[in-house]
Amino acid sequence: MGYPFQSFTKDPRSSPESMDLSRETVGLRTKMASSGGLHFGSHHHHRQSSPAQHGGGSEGLSLSLIKSECGDLQDMADISPYSGSTIQEGLSPNHLKKAKLMFFYTRYPSSNMLKMFFSDVKFNRCITSQLIKWFSNFREFYYIQMEKFARQAINEGVTTNDDLSVARESELYRALNMHYNKANDFEVPDRFLEVAQITLREFFNAIVAGKDVDPSWKKAIYKVICKLDSEVPEVFKSPNCLQELLHE
Where is this region: Disordered (predicted)? Predict the structure, then answer.
């Protein structure tokens, strides 16, 4: 029997991503204006090994794309399959919601993938950086939750990772779903639960083995998880994909 990490009601707000977009945008501007790291609330003990702060290793793959692939970007209006009238100058709350839903399939998208799946946006260096930063933030929240629940399991006496599972009724899944699928109007793929369970067990094994004494101990986990991305469904390439994906 799996460890019981213990439905939702829909978010009553008509645009639950609006405030998130503001926070994500402010976060990017702050990051670009200073060399400071990304912080989540009072989780100060995560700062030294926070996923967004490691330039090397697998977690740095997407972040390094800002330098390697965002130089002279081709104007997406020239290659977009959609008419020029649909090209937007900036990112909207719907783009943020779409990115969060894509996280259920891919944790480490390349900048080229992002250009394919956000073809209704006129890309420039800032837009690319913003999208990459969004996924960096998504990953940081994801890994913080994994470490939190792994340590909780250890504190409660769990001794083997076979006792750890992630189901739709589990508390860990609920925390993740509330963050990426706030309105609970998207059917999360089963594969995401499998990846979440693998991630949880990786953190559990590393902590039990005492590897967390090394400041870079999470990098080995990132290398495992970055290989578990799934193919994002083609429907996500459509600017109107949310209308097709979301249920009432």
Answer: 1-24, 37-60
Q: What is the pTM assigned to this prediction?
A: 0.70
Residue for token pair 């083609």? 234
DSSP for 109-160 reads: --HHHHHHHTTTB---HHHHHHHHHHHHHHHHHHHHHHHHHHHHHHHTT---
pLDDT in tens, 136-189: 999 999 999 999 999 999 999 999 999 999 999 999 999 999 999 999 999 999
Rounded to whole angstroms, the Cα distance separating 139 from 82 reads: 30
User: How does pLDDT run across 40-63, given as a tens digit for each residue?
Assistant: 333 334 434 444 444 344 444 444
The residues, any chain, with a CB within 8 Å of residue 240's CB and separated by 6 or more, are: none
Cα radius of gyration rounded to whole Å, the chain: 18
Q: What is residue 164's three-state secondary structure?
A: strand
- What domains sit in the chain, N to C, each tagged with a CATH number? 18-24+50-245 (1.10.10.500)
* Residue 121 bridge partners (DSSP): 88
* Integer Cα distance of 162 and 109 in angstroms: 30
Q: What is the dihedral of CA 111, 28, 233, 142, to 10 degrees?
A: 120
